[in-house]
């Protein structure tokens, strides 16, 4: 990962409420995980976040292309009772940012 990308991930990770950031490869394996606490939910579940979020992005991208074949998924936000998950699919990986929505 380039120094610029690494610096950007570090900057995002220090925003209030961010629990962690995962960079997942196309096959759903996590290649990088940044989190503030060793026992954070992101650290404990990084493999599950990687697998499921990569699959969700793939299905959402497919739905977008079914609606318009020349369009593509750029960003996806999922909010649950406990966390908000922001997904940014790229060519070879997916950036997953997990935050506590009540910490803003």
Automatic annotation (TrEMBL):
Roadblock/LAMTOR2 domain sequence ranges: 5-99
Compartment(s) where it occurs, according to its Swiss-Prot or TrEMBL record: Cytoplasm, Cytoskeleton
Principal location: cytoplasm
Record's GO cellular component terms: cytoplasm; cytoplasmic dynein complex; microtubule
UniProt key word Nucleotide-binding: no
GO molecular function, one term: dynein intermediate chain binding
Primary role: Acts as one of several non-catalytic accessory components of the cytoplasmic dynein 1 complex that are thought to be involved in linking dynein to cargos and to adapter proteins that regulate dynein function. Cytoplasmic dynein 1 acts as a motor for the intracellular retrograde motility of vesicles and organelles along microtubules.
Protein name in the entry: Dynein light chain roadblock
Species assigned in the record: Streblomastix strix
């Amino acid at each position: 990962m380039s120094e610029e990308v690494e610096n950007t991930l570090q900057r995002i990770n220090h925003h209030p409420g961010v629990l962690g950031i995962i960079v997942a490869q196309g096959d759903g394996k996590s290649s990088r995980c940044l989190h503030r606490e060793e026992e954070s939910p992101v650290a404990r579940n990084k493999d599950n976040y990687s697998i499921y979020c990569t699959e969700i992005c793939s299905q959402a991208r497919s739905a977008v292309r079914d609606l318009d074949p020349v369009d593509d998924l750029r960003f996806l936000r999922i909010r649950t009772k406990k966390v908000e998950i922001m997904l940014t699919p790229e060519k070879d990986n997916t950036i997953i940012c997990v935050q506590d929505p009540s910490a803003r």
